[in-house]
Inverse folding.
């Protein structure tokens, strides 16, 4: 994996972060959330073409997995939703609450140290990180300016929050592959319906690829965050 030369690997509090400071001007902060078995290097393939006024931070999730890489929830067999597409079982909404709370605290502490105003920030996640992105947006809608949800899903158990319409007018970009064998396209289509039911203004891009983001959807993603 080729890492951008203009990023820095740092330790901040108890986190390992890869960071790209903004080039100039008043920065916008972008939080990049990797997927299951990913790490702080995984999200830069999606971020490299985004505007240089973004100050980007990509944290490493706290829990090591047996397959290598890291996860946003501790490994356990109970209290998970199992699907034909994922024999490991998927985490539910409550499984992501601690990670969502921790990332909000991370953003606030990092921004305070670097003199940034982050009453609102942007967030983008892939796969498990996209599910966590949805969770953060639903739990902390007032903190999120825009969200990118790539090859992800809405965790089971979010329905009671969705019914309160916390995302009124919130712009969210959803990208998914119709050939995705890890997270079926049907879960993405259901997620779009649920996000719209929560009040979000959703831009949906689906394309004939697997568990990845197509070139066409990448262009849409870049325009969305431009």
């Amino acid at each position: 994996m080729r890492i951008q030369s203009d990023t820095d690997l740092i330790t901040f509090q108890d986190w390992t972060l890869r960071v790209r400071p903004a080039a100039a001007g008043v920065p916008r902060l972008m939080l990049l959330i990797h997927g299951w078995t990913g790490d702080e290097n995984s999200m830069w393939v999606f971020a490299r073409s985004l505007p240089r006024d973004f100050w980007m931070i990509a944290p490493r999730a706290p829990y090591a997995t047996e397959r290598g890489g890291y996860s946003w929830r501790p490994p356990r067999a109970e209290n998970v939703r199992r699907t034909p597409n994922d024999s490991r079982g998927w985490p539910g909404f409550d499984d992501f609450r601690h990670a969502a709370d921790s990332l909000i605290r991370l953003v606030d502490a990092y921004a305070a140290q670097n003199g940034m105003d982050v009453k609102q920030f942007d967030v983008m996640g892939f796969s498990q990180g996209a599910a966590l992105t949805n969770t953060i947006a639903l739990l902390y809608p007032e903190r999120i300016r825009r969200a990118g949800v790539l090859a992800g899903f809405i965790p089971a158990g979010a329905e009671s929050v969705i019914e309160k319409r916390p995302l009124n007018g919130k712009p969210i970009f959803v990208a998914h592959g119709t050939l995705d064998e890890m997270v079926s396209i049907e879960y993405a289509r259901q997620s779009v319906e649920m996000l719209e039911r929560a009040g979000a203004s959703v831009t949906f891009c689906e394309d004939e690829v697997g568990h990845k983001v197509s070139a066409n959807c990448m262009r849409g993603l870049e325009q969305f965050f431009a």
